[in-house]
Amino acid sequence: MALVVFNQKGGVGKSTITCNLAAISASQGLRTLVIDLDSQGNSSAYLLGHAPNPEQPSVVGFFEQTLGYSFRPPAPTEFVVRTPFERLDLMASGPQLDELQGKLESRHKIYKLREALQQLAPVYDRIYIDTPPALNFYTRSALMGASGCLIPFDCDDFSRQALYTLLANVEEIRADHNPQLAIRGIVVNQFQARAKLPQQLVQELVDEGLPVLQPYLPQSVKVRESHQLALPMIHLDPRHKLTQALVQLHDRLARTDAL
Ligand SMILES: Nc1ncnc2c1ncn2[C@@H]1O[C@H](COP(=O)(O)OP(=O)(O)OP(=O)(O)O)[C@@H](O)[C@H]1O
Ligand SMILES: [Mg+2]
Questions:
Q1: Is residue 258 pLDDT above 60, yes or no?
Q2: Ligand 1 atom nearest to CA at 40
Q3: Which of 59, 142, 188, 253 has the maximal Cβ count within 10 Å?
Q4: Structural domain tally of the chain?
Q5: Band of the pLDDT at 257, cuts 50, 70, 90?
Q6: Model confidence over 28-83: pLDDT tens digits?
Q7: CATH number of 165's domain
Q8: What is the pLDDT of residues 2-39, one digit of tens each?
Q9: How far is the CA of 224 from the centre of ligand 1 (A)?
Q10: Whole-structure pTM over 0.90, yes or no?
Q11: pLDDT tens, 165-194?
């Protein structure tokens, strides 16, 4: 039901993949929610077309209210805003997430997102969670509550080193806290079919038996345009080869298991 997109390495395509898969789900008629757990707010800006308004409901508000006692706590849906795209909602992030983190940690609020995801499950057909480039409180909260994890990989040798640690970290959280968490696979992003090195690198991962998903997402200058115009690829250019690859990846994920 809830899919978390995680890699502690920065700039591998987490936000791009989260928002684009979500936009495809929504365009196929599914009630879809993106939860942006990164204080940078890239997914929020991508889907809203502007930085989230601190006065508006957000994931910051959600976590803040877990610190106080309320006889009747607000439903998680109260922290959701609509995006310009039909059926696509957002729990936006905010820079205040950083300063909140210590308090949430010391007060043991690590399961609050999991509880919220359970409450949101009947409201949304698909929930995608974008995470910061760190295994911090928010990323752990997401991994403890999600049913699946997608790992973007940017065909870089340093990313490969980080991949083994990452898989071990996710496995530990699965074993200790969330047996239903499935590693849905590694998404190869920014793939250059004509370059030899990335091909070799990805082939080695496949040979090692790592769960590399097909198809690979090609590198394209359209991504920048998509971010700038705040239009996910399915709306910007549905026939583009990157869009087609994203749709195939989306449909494959939907076929192999409920998200
Ligand atoms: N398939 C692609 N082709 C070309 N550029 C891409 C592709 N995917 C992502 N990018 C670019 O790479 C950069 C990083 O992407 P993105 O912000 O999605 O990564 P991230 O993992 O969310 O980063 P962070 O760790 O900072 O949150 C962006 O400038 C984006 O435009
Ligand atoms: Mg990001």
A1: no
A2: 27
A3: 59
A4: 1
A5: low
A6: 999 999 999 999 999 999 999 999 998 999 999 999 999 998 888 999 999 999 99
A7: 3.40.50.300
A8: 999 999 999 999 999 999 999 999 999 999 999 999 99
A9: 9
A10: yes
A11: 999 999 999 999 999 999 999 999 999 988
Written in H, E and C, the secondary structure of the chain is CEEEECCCCCCCCHHHHHHHHHHHHHHCCCCEEEEECCCCCHHHHHHHCCCCCCCCCCHHHHHHHCCCCCCCCCCHHHHCEECCCCCEEEECCCCHHHHHHHHHHHCCCCCHHHHHHHHHCCCCCEEEEECCCCCCHHHHHHHHHCCEEEEEECCCHHHHHHHHHHHHHHHHHHHHHCCCCEEEEEEECCECCCCHHHHHHHHHHHHCCCCECCCCCECCCHHHHHHHHCCCHHHHCCCCHHHHHHHHHHHHHHHHCCC
* 66 CA to centre of ligand 1 in angstroms: 32
44 near 35, Cβ under 8 Å? no
Host domain of residue 73? 2-258
Measuring from each residue's beta carbon to the nearest atom of ligand 1, which residues come in under 6 Å? 10-16, 38, 40, 42, 133, 189-190, 217, 219-220, 223-224, 227, 242
